[in-house]
């Protein structure tokens, strides 16, 4: 008979509900969320929003799940687990944006990290541009923070050649905090910029790494959601998430024929 002393009935790890797509290569999407949150000491509750056909090179196709299935997954988690934060990844359709709005009605006051996944790392589209518009108009006002890279920020702001500052000026009326990540130019250092509606700004720079990475945005957003779930102050949580993400990229591996896969867990994690 199993002793009750070996059973951990109550967990102290905060739960993060992840609404993201599935990437069969394991580089991005829900697997990235799960690994990054485990590394923060959090428990990931993954609800699948979309299925994709992709590898480390690019995305070939995707299918958004039925709205009822996504709602059922999320409500099952919410009814059972104390959700401390929510991380949004790939939504893929305007209908899924509305689905997330309904889910968040059951989680008032819970931090929401919105990673507006509109393009795969290889450049393939993961939703039409009207999805970005719907996210900006309907989801960003609910979000604690959005974490677009500069190309995604340009889509959301409808500024095809806009700078990070110009995109932030356009987007801050919609979202309380905005982290626009760099690394898409040829600069020697990567500059990540945190903008807040109260006018405060923080800039975080890091060494540019030689390579292209699959799942870096998912890693950053899920890590940030985990840090907020742990109770860390937003600016500090952003700094922690950026530092962790950079280390996963520094230690990344080229497992396939395309981009490098971040190493989000140490080799001895399960030993």
TrEMBL record:
Query: InterPro entries per the record?
Result: HMP/HMP-P_kinase_dom (IPR004399), PM/HMP-P_kinase-1 (IPR013749), Ribokinase-like (IPR029056)
Instruction: Give one Pfam hit by family name.
Output: Phos_pyr_kin
> What residue intervals traverse the membrane?
none
List the GO cellular component terms: cytosol
Task: Report a single Gene Ontology molecular function.
Answer: hydroxymethylpyrimidine kinase activity
SUPFAM superfamilies tied to this protein = Ribokinase-like (SSF53613)
Which UniProt keywords are listed? Kinase, Transferase
Q: Which residues form the Pyridoxamine kinase/Phosphomethylpyrimidine kinase domain?
A: 23-259
Enzyme Commission no: 2.7.1.49
List the GO biological process terms: thiamine biosynthetic process; thiamine diphosphate biosynthetic process
Which pathway or pathways does this protein act in?
A: Cofactor biosynthesis; thiamine diphosphate biosynthesis
Record protein name field? hydroxymethylpyrimidine kinase
- Species source reads Pseudomonas cavernae
